[in-house]
Design goal:
mainly alpha; 14 helices; globular
């Protein structure tokens, strides 16, 4: 019987190139994906660019030259007027206090809750996690009236605490941190316990350093959400000096007319901290988004 060795067989002469087909398909998919992303980016950025360019026009030229996007004689008069005629610095300070305070307490409480739900072993853990997930489907507007009555009962109305209490320890942050901690190997915790670490030491020395990407993502999400908060601060605050920036901007719209140039200038100023927060934490933000979707 004659035997053939594998060295004598040639399979690469007449076969179609699967690798070539795969690379062509991947290239087409990347092109389509980039076209979709560029189109979506343009749709989202064009209104912002239009608002910025329009804020550089004098008030009497905003509607007369509405089809002329680029101003012929750009000016910063709207920015100067909105800053000089309104307590814009106070509104910005209020927004910063609220946003930073909510971010701090959210990162503290949501990491503790997420760590307990991911690595803890206690009775009723599944039930507690179900309650946390269940609160995600409840709109915040549902609790505005009872929360308003509660804040008045404890004399917290017109305070920073009254505004922050609605946003602190949000269930989305708890879910997000739980998803991240589920991806941390249990062997790290077991090794730390063998070295004599307590549960709190494991949380502070191992879990929190590993969770920097997730903390960055949650911090950016929370900052953007609180910075743009409008309805609850408008309901619970009655002193204009306590208004955050978004509520203050709402005061610029009059009943019979509005200073559109100043309004657009204030909107651009309000968007700058959000853009800065995202750019500063962009790398860890994207990494945290990828890492928190690992396990269910």
């Amino acid at each position: 019987m004659t035997t053939l060795s594998t060295d004598e067989l040639r399979f690469d002469d007449d076969r179609p190139s699967v690798e070539h087909e795969g690379s062509w398909y991947d290239t087409l998919a990347k092109v389509v994906a980039h076209v979709i992303l560029l189109t979506a980016s343009a749709i989202m950025t064009i209104p912002f660019i239009w608002a910025f360019l329009t804020s550089l026009k004098p008030e009497n030229e905003i509607f007369t030259t509405i089809k002329q996007i680029i101003p012929s004689d750009p000016t910063l008069v709207n920015y100067v007027n909105v800053w000089m005629q309104n307590p814009l610095d106070r509104w910005i300070l209020n927004s910063l206090i609220l946003a930073v305070g909510v971010v701090f307490f959210t990162l503290l409480l949501d990491t503790l809750a997420g760590y307990a739900l991911a690595k803890g072993d206690f009775r009723g853990k599944s039930f507690v996690y179900t309650l946390v997930i269940g609160t995600l489907v409840i709109p915040p507007q549902v609790v505005l009236v009872p929360l308003y009555l509660e804040m008045n009962a404890i004399n917290w109305s017109n305070t920073y605490w009254a505004v922050m209490v609605l946003y602190i320890a949000n269930p989305f942050g708890t879910f997000m941190m739980r998803q991240f901690f589920l991806g941390v190997p249990d062997s790290l915790i077991e090794a730390a316990r063998m070295d004599g670490c307590s549960t709190f030491q494991i949380y502070t020395r191992i879990m929190l350093p590993l969770a920097k990407p997730a903390l960055s993502s949650l911090g950016v999400f929370t900052f953007i959400f609180v910075w743009g908060a409008f309805l609850w601060p408008l309901v619970i605050l009655n002193d204009s000096s306590m208004y955050p920036l978004q509520v203050g901007i709402g005061l610029l719209t009059g009943r019979y007319g509005s200073q559109w140039g100043q309004l657009l200038a204030a909107v651009i100023l309000a968007a700058l901290p959000v853009i800065a927060a995202y750019l500063l934490a962009q790398r860890t933000f994207m990494e945290g988004i990828a890492l928190t979707g690992g396990k269910g």
